[in-house]
Design brief:
- The chain has about 110 residues and is an alpha+beta fold.
- It has a single domain (about 15-100), classed as Beta-grasp domain (Ubiquitin-like (UB roll), Roll), CATH 3.10.20.30.
- The chain is built from two helices and five strands.
- The chain has helices at about 45-55, 55-60, and strands spanning about 15-20, 35-40, 70-75, 80, 95-100.
Length: about 110
């Protein structure tokens, strides 16, 4: 009888469980959810997952080239992505990614 192969008990998972906070103006793009939970490893991976799961939300955040739109700000915890490592900012379990829309007026 051939030996049976079993999956290892401890599989390394390099993704982090993070929360994505969605601002009120964009909630209709994700079924009204104020917060999304996903497993990803970087801010760029968050955007890729949003593109897969919520394409309308992704289009509201990124332009056709994949760049974050000028009126959108992305924060990891309390730091703007530009003060970290941009879209390559690594994420750890428990991190919160906040999507903020620019507010203007007079």
């Amino acid at each position: 009888m051939p030996p049976q192969l079993t999956a290892p008990k401890h599989v390394l998972d390099h993704s982090a469980k993070v929360k994505v906070s969605v601002p009120t103006p964009l909630r209709d793009c994700c079924g009204g959810a104020p917060e999304l939970t996903m497993r990803t490893s970087s801010l760029h991976a968050v955007l890729k997952e949003l593109e897969r799961r919520y394409p309308k939300l992704h289009r509201s955040i990124c332009d056709e080239t994949g760049a974050v739109r000028r009126h959108i700000n992305l924060f990891v915890n309390t730091q703007h992505m530009r003060d970290c490592n941009g879209l390559e900012t690594s994420l750890e379990s428990g991190d919160v990614v906040t999507i903020m829309t620019a507010v203007s007026g007079g």
